[in-house]
Specification:
The chain is 39% helix and 18% strand. The chain is of the alpha+beta class. The two termini are 20 Å apart.
């Protein structure tokens, strides 16, 4: 669960400052708050991996988003023509797979334990409380915000 008084903007600003070597200042955090701690942990792992392989300054995070109900963090070389060496690509793949598997067990809204489910053809990972809210929102004609109204 996110701490009382959690502030999204402050948290993301801290991530931008801490991981400025790999995180462009204009990168969008296209996920709900519950996954922000998972992103923080993942960025630390990604940065350490890039550092270990001598790729700091040569690679960066290109996208952070939800896709098909799980968290995706895309890391790419800064130069389009460059490609990662196999050892680095393999380590980043392990990190990516861990991010995805952890995210489908973590509620995207609050960070509590959750599960991936299908909500009228929309995949999302939610805890029981937020899954109920989403189902009620769908049943009531999808009016307003399912989690904040």
């Amino acid at each position: 669960m996110l701490p009382e008084g959690f502030n999204r903007e402050t948290y993301i600003a801290g991530l931008r400052e801490k991981h400025g070597r790999i995180l462009p200042s204009d990168i969008a955090f296209a996920v709900e708050n519950g996954w922000l701690p998972l992103i923080s942990q993942s960025l630390s792992e990604i940065e350490a991996c890039l550092e270990k392989h001598g790729w700091i300054g040569r690679a960066s995070v290109r996208q952070i988003k939800e896709k098909l109900g799980d968290l995706r963090i895309y890391v790419r070389p800064r130069r389009e023509s460059a490609s990662f060496p196999k050892a680095l690509a393999d380590e980043l793949s392990v990190i990516r797979n861990r991010i995805m598997s952890t995210s489908v067990e973590t509620c995207e809204i609050c960070g509590d334990a959750g599960q991936l489910d299908n909500f009228d053809s929309y995949l999302q990972t939610l805890c029981g409380k937020h899954a109920e809210q989403r189902r009620a929102w769908i049943a009531n004609g999808r009016k307003g915000d399912p989690f904040n109204d």
